[in-house]
């Protein structure tokens, strides 16, 4: 009888604990969240809808940027490609700053709202630069805005608007995605599985926005004007912000915990100050906090790599547990803090060796689009596909690969690997990198064929394979990078983790511009430049072959480091 009462009491306590979310998140009033009324898919849908509208705006602007710079502002191909890469680079590197601010000071929710307002300001200014007579590309008497060179004032206002969008994206993108993932509890079996699908379906929402952006918005740009397209984007973005705000009471929030970089510096300083101490014979002698809340609810297991850093968690010979609690964090760190620094250091090679994928991606919004612009895009006598709309094929490929992965590969591979993800995250990333190499090879072959028949207009359908293949690669690598950087960074750096994934694309764009400059300089010295005034006087096929070879060599290095990588190992702690 007594045993039954104890079992019943234990079951009651467990059921009560399951009602609440104990992952250090809070509800909108700062209380422990109730599981049934907060988070999970019911709130993630608000967030995915908001991301859909932001990606609609971003790709509606980004994919046509190279065409705007060449047709309206009248820059040459080389300068336009560089400016596009610079803008994409800044746009995808700014999240490093936005993610840091969100994690350390403002919170993700507040950062989302502020950055969305800045984003809207950029869209409004972009629209004004087209409609206000004083800011138009051409003299206000020219109602068609066609001229041989855009006015300087339009060029200045246009780039200010574009970089306002960059700053808005810098806070919006990392905060919104990490805020969405925060709606799932890692310590709850069902919610943890839902989170794995969240990144896949998040990407489907992104791709849906992309497809609509490069079809409907680009069509309006081509057949009405750019200003009307900007007004549509303003309306959609403002409406989705209101929808996002309506879900305020049902979200789970994370309280900012100060700069996530400070604990890292504390570990390094403590380790250096104790560099002469011998390593302990047993890792259990290393110091770990006894307070569950001091580690944001999760402790990390000790690992054998980068053992030098373990000295930061070593107790001095005259220390005891009570004295250790009072020591300065610059002199003594916990095992969890040491392991968090190890996680960041172990990520550096992975980040570096995914950069060539970012370089390959940069070609889709520059040279791939420009190739489509000079090819035969007619479907009928009355309709011609806008050049930027071809980019929708990349999103189509990504949606297909995400759906196949989530619904077919994961269930099949689970049985073979006993891994709840099917394949581990780095294997998924490496698979996508292989697709990017194949895409560059196909692009080189297609461009070579186009140059051989330059006197004829090649049909744009020849570009379908290279767009679809790199889209397949995106479905593996981009989604894998999102999950990798969110999951493997310390819990206090989740927004910064998403920013690290975006920085792969940004750094890839900057490197693409640098490579174009170097290749242009070298090939000009030894003969004819690979980048001429237009595509017919360029040798993009050789450039694509160079990227394919470079990416292949890089993939071998990536596989080597991926095989050595140790994933985050969280201790199971009873609350």
From TrEMBL:
<dbReference type="InterPro" id="IPR036259">
    <property type="entry name" value="MFS_trans_sf"/>
</dbReference>
<feature type="transmembrane region" description="Helical">
    <location>
        <begin position="226"/>
        <end position="247"/>
    </location>
</feature>
<dbReference type="InterPro" id="IPR000109">
    <property type="entry name" value="POT_fam"/>
</dbReference>
<feature type="transmembrane region" description="Helical">
    <location>
        <begin position="543"/>
        <end position="562"/>
    </location>
</feature>
<protein>
    <recommendedName>
        <fullName>Protein NRT1/ PTR FAMILY 5.6</fullName>
    </recommendedName>
</protein>
<dbReference type="GO" id="GO:0016020">
    <property type="term" value="C:membrane"/>
</dbReference>
<dbReference type="InterPro" id="IPR044739">
    <property type="entry name" value="NRT1/PTR"/>
</dbReference>
<comment type="similarity">
    <text>Belongs to the major facilitator superfamily. Proton-dependent oligopeptide transporter (POT/PTR) (TC 2.A.17) family.</text>
</comment>
<feature type="transmembrane region" description="Helical">
    <location>
        <begin position="467"/>
        <end position="486"/>
    </location>
</feature>
<dbReference type="GO" id="GO:0071916">
    <property type="term" value="F:dipeptide transmembrane transporter activity"/>
</dbReference>
<keyword id="KW-1133">Transmembrane helix</keyword>
<feature type="transmembrane region" description="Helical">
    <location>
        <begin position="86"/>
        <end position="106"/>
    </location>
</feature>
<dbReference type="Pfam" id="PF00854">
    <property type="entry name" value="PTR2"/>
</dbReference>
<feature type="transmembrane region" description="Helical">
    <location>
        <begin position="385"/>
        <end position="405"/>
    </location>
</feature>
<feature type="transmembrane region" description="Helical">
    <location>
        <begin position="198"/>
        <end position="220"/>
    </location>
</feature>
<keyword id="KW-0472">Membrane</keyword>
<feature type="transmembrane region" description="Helical">
    <location>
        <begin position="112"/>
        <end position="132"/>
    </location>
</feature>
<feature type="transmembrane region" description="Helical">
    <location>
        <begin position="425"/>
        <end position="446"/>
    </location>
</feature>
<dbReference type="GO" id="GO:0042937">
    <property type="term" value="F:tripeptide transmembrane transporter activity"/>
</dbReference>
<keyword id="KW-0812">Transmembrane</keyword>
<feature type="transmembrane region" description="Helical">
    <location>
        <begin position="498"/>
        <end position="522"/>
    </location>
</feature>
């Amino acid at each position: 009888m007594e045993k039954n009462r104890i079992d019943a009491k234990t079951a009651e306590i467990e059921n009560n604990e399951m009602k609440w979310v104990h992952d250090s998140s809070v509800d909108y009033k700062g209380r422990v969240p109730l599981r049934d009324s907060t988070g999970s898919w019911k709130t993630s849908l608000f967030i995915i809808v908001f991301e859909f509208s932001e990606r609609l705006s971003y790709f509606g602007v980004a994919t046509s940027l190279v065409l705007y710079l060449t047709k309206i502002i009248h820059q040459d191909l080389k300068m336009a490609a560089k400016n596009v890469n610079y803008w994409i680079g800044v746009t995808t590197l700014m999240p490093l700053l936005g993610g840091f601010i969100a994690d350390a000071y403002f919170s993700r929710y507040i950062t989302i709202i502020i950055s969305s307002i800045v984003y809207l300001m950029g869209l409004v200014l972009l629209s004004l630069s087209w409609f206000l007579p004083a800011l138009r590309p051409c003299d206000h008497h020219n109602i068609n805005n066609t001229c041989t060179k855009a006015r300087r004032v339009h060029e200045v206002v246009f780039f200010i608007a574009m970089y306002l969008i960059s700053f808005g994206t810098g806070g919006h993108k990392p905060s919104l995605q990490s805020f969405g993932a925060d709606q799932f509890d890692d310590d709850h079996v069902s919610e943890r599985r839902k989170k794995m699908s969240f990144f896949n379906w998040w990407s489907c929402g992104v791709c849906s926005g992309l497809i609509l952006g490069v079809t409907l918005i680009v069509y309006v740009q081509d057949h009405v004007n750019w200003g009307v397209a900007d007004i549509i984007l303003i309306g959609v973005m403002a409406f989705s912000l209101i929808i996002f705000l309506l879900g305020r009471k049902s979200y789970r929030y994370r309280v900012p915990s100060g700069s996530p970089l400070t604990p890292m510096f504390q570990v390094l300083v403590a380790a250096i100050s104790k560099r002469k101490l011998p390593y302990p014979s047993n890792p259990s002698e290393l110091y770990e906090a006894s307070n569950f809340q001091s580690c944001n609810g999760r402790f990390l297991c000790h690992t054998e790599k980068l053992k030098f850093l373990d000295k930061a968690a070593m107790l001095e010979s005259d220390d005891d547990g009570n004295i250790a609690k009072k020591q300065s964090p610059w002199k003594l760190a916990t095992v969890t803090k040491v392991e968090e620094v190890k996680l960041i250091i172990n990520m550096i090679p992975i980040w570096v060796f995914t950069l060539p994928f970012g370089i390959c991606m940069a070609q889709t919004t520059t040279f791939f689009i420009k190739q489509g612009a000079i090819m035969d895009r007619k479907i009928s006598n009355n309709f011609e596909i806008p050049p930027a709309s071809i980019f929708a094929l990349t999103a189509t490929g990504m949606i297909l690969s995400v759906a196949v992965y989530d619904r077919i590969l994961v269930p099949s591979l689970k049985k073979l690997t006993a891994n709840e993800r099917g394949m581990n995250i780095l294997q998924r990333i490496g698979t996508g990198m292989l697709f990017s190499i194949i895409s560059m090879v196909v692009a080189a072959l297609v461009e070579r064929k186009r140059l051989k028949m330059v006197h004829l207009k090649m049909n744009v359908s020849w570009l379908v394979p290279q767009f679809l293949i790199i889209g397949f690669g995106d479905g593996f690598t981009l989604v894998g990078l999102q999950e990798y950087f969110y999951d493997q960074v310390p819990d206090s750096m989740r927004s910064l983790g998403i920013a690290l994934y975006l920085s792969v694309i940004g750094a890839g764009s900057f490197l693409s511009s640098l490579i174009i400059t170097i290749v242009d300089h070298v090939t000009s010295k030894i003969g004819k430049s690979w980048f001429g005034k237009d595509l017919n006087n360029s040798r993009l096929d050789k450039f694509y072959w160079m990227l394919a070879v470079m990416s292949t060599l890089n993939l071998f290095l990536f596989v080597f480091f991926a095989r050595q990588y140790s994933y985050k190992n969280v201790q199971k702690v009873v609350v």
